[in-house]
Batch of 2 targets.
Target 1
Amino acid sequence: MYSLDVKASSGSYPIYIKNGLLGEIGSEVKKIYKGRKIAVVTDSNVNKFYGQKVINALNAEGFETFKIVVKAGEESKSFETLLQVYDKLLDFKINRGDIIIALGGGVVGDMAGFVASTFLRGIPLIQIPTTLLAQVDSSVGGKVAVDLPRGKNLVGSFYNPKAVFIDPLLLGTLSEKFVSDGMGEVIKYGVIKDSELFYKLMNYENSEAALKGIDEIIYTCCTIKADIVERDEHDTGERMLLNFGHTIGHAVEQFFNFTGYSHGESVGIGMYTITKIGEELGITKIGTANIIKNILIKYNLPWTLPEIKTEAIIEAISHDKKNIGDSMNFILIESIGNSFIGEIHEDKIVEYLQNNQK
Ligand SMILES: NC(=O)c1ccc[n+]([C@@H]2O[C@H](COP(=O)([O-])OP(=O)(O)OC[C@H]3O[C@@H](n4cnc5c(N)ncnc54)[C@H](O)[C@@H]3O)[C@@H](O)[C@H]2O)c1
């Protein structure tokens, strides 16, 4: 079992990572929760694979459990879903001494986490992330949110869980598309903070081979994220490094209405593009973009910028980040493993985009 503690202003919380941990979830929860009632929030896909298993494991330890199943997909990060979930919690007479378990990917983690942070002004939360993205990223760091019709994650809060239980074996049922998506974030950790992780990923033959050692990789990623969020819990400085590749990535995702490119694919394109721009401006060591391109290819992620109107990218970028005059804030790298927050003039971005569209 790998474990680490994340030090947060609300107190520290543990992350446990172990193949097969889900089978022991009843006794693990019992160690940290002395109450009786538990509401398990999950989605329709995860429920099919693991819903009953979790309920049975908890019931076996004498807990009184209630299951709330929402529709799988981003659309469940909505106010409509929140109302349904709050309603069920009232039906089950959940109160502030009880707990909520978020069992699912980033969607369930964010939405159920927001429910936990707001219902009766706060119910303790346990995260059981089931996608690679959720295991290496969204379940750690306390950001919870739902979407508004005008944009993603526009209503949310910082709300740390009591514990995060990660069972990498759950990734066995995840579709290839979502494995690649999570790999995009794993690669990002290597690029921004850990060249050893990056070259370890580079040395695997393919994504399937990397999955065999994924428990250790997840531990490394959680350690990097924990380290960053401990120093900048509320995202006003260093935590922004986690957005490497995300600014241009968001622009791509948004331009194709969140249906053309997945999040991981867009981040891959964003990481390559900003690194190439960094090279052209003399900020990034020459050859780094090519190294990133090679790892993206290995993990079935795209790197070429699709044809998008330059104005649309600039528009999306300028909404995305705090900008100073005509300069824009970006996460840049000097080399693999060394990142920083820097500024780039809008003209330079426009020039690059005009010369490098597919
Ligand atoms: N809070 C944060 O810090 C943070 C960070 C990054 C992303 N996010 C959020 O995370 C969300 C995306 O998360 P995601 O990529 O995990 O998507 P997701 O939660 O929609 O899961 C992806 C798909 O996989 C299915 N699934 C989940 N686990 C499975 C398993 N083990 N086996 C089979 N199917 C499974 C889900 O039902 C869903 O269809 C976005 O809303 C994003 O905003 C939050």
Target 2
Amino acid sequence: MVKSDLDCLQTKLQLGISKCLLGEKVRYDGGDKRLSFAVNDLSPFANFHSICPESAIGLPTPRPTIGLYQTDQQSVMMRFNDQQIESDIDHQMTLFCQQIMSDLSNLCGYIVCANSPSCGLDNAKVYDNEREHLITLADGRFTACLRSYYPWLPIEDNLRLANPDIQNHFVIRLFALQRLNDLNRHGLTRHALLTFHSRYKLLLLAHSQPLYRQIGPFVAKLDQFDDLQAFFVQYRERLMTLLSTPATKENHTNVLMHMQGYFNRYLTGQQKKSLTDTILAYRRGELPLSSPMSCLKTCLEQYPNSYLSDQFYFTHYPKALPSIDNGVT
Ligand code: SF4
């Protein structure tokens, strides 16, 4: 038996989100950008920590539009697009970001609102000082601060999350970091860390073989760390960097073949061939990942193996999470 959904998390996902994505009418035009994936799909599994940076610095709704402007080669500043309006919103936003960041340390991820000068992710427009030319696309001010303060944190925006592969990849990272944060909060032990890593091995292998080969020797040196928290900090960075690499069909095929090896001695020649054919059909794109996964789960039911059944590869997030196939396509 694979571990049940109840085993997936000790606590709900602690998920940061741009307030307008929850349907709150805080945008400059008095509207919102309600994101169904968050409001409907993730909400049973998440505690949302919603922030509207522009409201937080005291701006009203509705409000005049804001933009990012390159003032010299080095600096980008935030100001109202109407230059007649005098304000120090650039300074206020800087102060707000500095003050709020330390409150976000328990988050396992963040969903930001695309294109916003405050919340955009790589897609906020930066103009020249006269607003005649688009200079570049960049992070919004809040998002830039978030990324710099928490470089390991999974961050996506509402537009990118319309892509099922990106959505799936994001959710895998959310659950991994939440589980790791849970360990840290509920009393970190060497045994707990080793167990966590062991249960993630096959999923890590599916995401990056080179980084998997690096993180293993690092974990093997756990006993050399007197300070467990120092190990945790480095492990978290390595783990989340590894998982930020999207899984591939080739890597999944290796993992599936590896798992098949655990059952070969129990299977008839015909059963082995059938399982191999299913895995290779997935590899060729003729079947979804769920097909060989389902075959392997059946094998696991018949021939229990505690190492495999503990693997988060099978249950990296709850099956009940709607709209996502519980596995990388
Ligand atoms: S994009 Fe960010 S700043 Fe703009 S309304 Fe949404 S939460 Fe507020």
